Amino acid sequence: MTTADTETRELQEFRREVADWLAANKPEDPGFLLPQSFMEVGSEQVLDFLREWQYKLWSAGYLGMAWPREYGGGGRPAVYQTIADAEMRKARVPICFNTIGLGWAGPLIIDIGSEEEKARYLKGILSAEDIWCQGFSEPDHGSDLGSAQTRAVRDGDDYLVNGTKIWTTLGNFAKYMILLARTDPNAERRYDGLSYFLAPMTVPGIETRPIQKITGEYGFTETFFTDARIPAACRMGEEGQGWKIAMRTLQYERGAEAGAAGGIAIIPISTQDLLAMAADQQRDGQPVLQDPSSRDQLVQLMIEEKAIRLSDARADIPALCTDYPFSLPLSNKLRTSEWSRRMRQYAVSLQGNAGSRYVGDARAIEGGFWQRAYLNNFSVTIGGGTSQIQANIVGEHILGLPKS
User: Fold this and answer.
1) 253 catalytic residue (yes or no)
2) CA 161 to CA 259: how far, in whole Å?
3) Which residue of the set 217, 253, 257, 305 is catalytic?
4) Fewer C-beta neighbours within 10 Å, C or N terminus of the chain?
5) Model pTM?
C-alpha cells in the first residue's frame, strides 16, 4: 500500500461525502429568479438567499478549504477544494456570490497582506458577512486602467477621495472595495502615481447607483466619491505601489493565479446542456441534430471545450509548458469567455424564431435560459479586461509582438 493509494481513497471518500451533503442540503427553488453569475445580484431578496447559502456551505467546511485555519479557512490541501467545487458544479447548486472577496481580494490579502489585514478581512469574506466590490474602472477611461483619475489626497490619518468608479459589481451591497486611486498626479510615469486601498464603503461621501443591464437585471453600480475619508491604514503597500498590486489582482481575476476560496461564481453551462436542448429542436421539419452543418458546428464547440479543459490541466504541469510558460494562464480568460459567448449565441440560433422569446414568455424554450445566458455573457467578455485587451496581452506578453 503506497501513500498515493491511501490519498486516492481518502479523496474518493471525500468526494462522496461532499456529494451526499450537497444532495441533502441543496436549496429548493425559492420561487424567484436566481442569478446565473455574481454579476446579477440585484435585490435584497436574492442577496439574503445567496448569503444564507454561502454561510451554510462555509459552515459545513466546503468553502475556503485551503485558506489558513486561523482566519476562518480549512487549512487543507487545495485538492480538497477542487473536488468540492467539482461536486458543486455537478449538483448545480446556487452560486457563491461574494466572488470579488473569495476570488480576488482574499487571495491577494493572503499572499501580500499583513497579519492584521488577514485577521480583519478573511473570515468575513468566507462567511459572506462582508461583501466586497472592485473600484478599478472609470467612466471616462474604459479599459485604460493606468489613466484612472479618482484622487486620494492625504489629510492627516485619512485620505480624501473624490471621483467616480463604474461597473462596481455588488457595490450597493458591499462593505469593502478594492480601490485604485491616484495619490500623485505629478508622477513622471502615470503608473507610479496610483495607490491601492482596502476601502470601507460605509463612510460618508460614498454613493452608489445601480445600473440596469440589457437582461433587465441589476448587479452593476456606479460609485461616486465626494470627500470620502478613507483611513490611511486601509492603504495596501506604499504610496505609488497601486499599479503593481492592481496587476496582481487582475491575475486572480483572469484566472492566472490560484488561491480562490472556491464555490461557483457562474452557473456552469456545457456543450452537454447545449446538446440536450438541441435534441428537441427541429429545422425544416427534421431534427436539427440530423443537419450536417448543425452537427459540424456542435462538434467544433465540443472540441474547443475539451481543449480548454486539457489546457487548464496542462498549465499545472511545468514540463508541458516550457516553450511559453505563462501562455495558458494568460490566455485563459480570452479563450474561455469567447468560447462561452459563441456557444451561447449558437444555442439561441438553433431555436429559430423561438430564439427571440425571453424570460417570462410562456413559449420560451427552457424558460428563456439560453437567451439570458447569452446576454449575461457580455459581462464576462468585458469584465476583467475586454477580449480586445486580452488579445493584446497575448500578443505582447506571450508572442512578444510590439505594442504598435
Assistant:
1) yes
2) 30
3) 253
4) C
5) 0.88
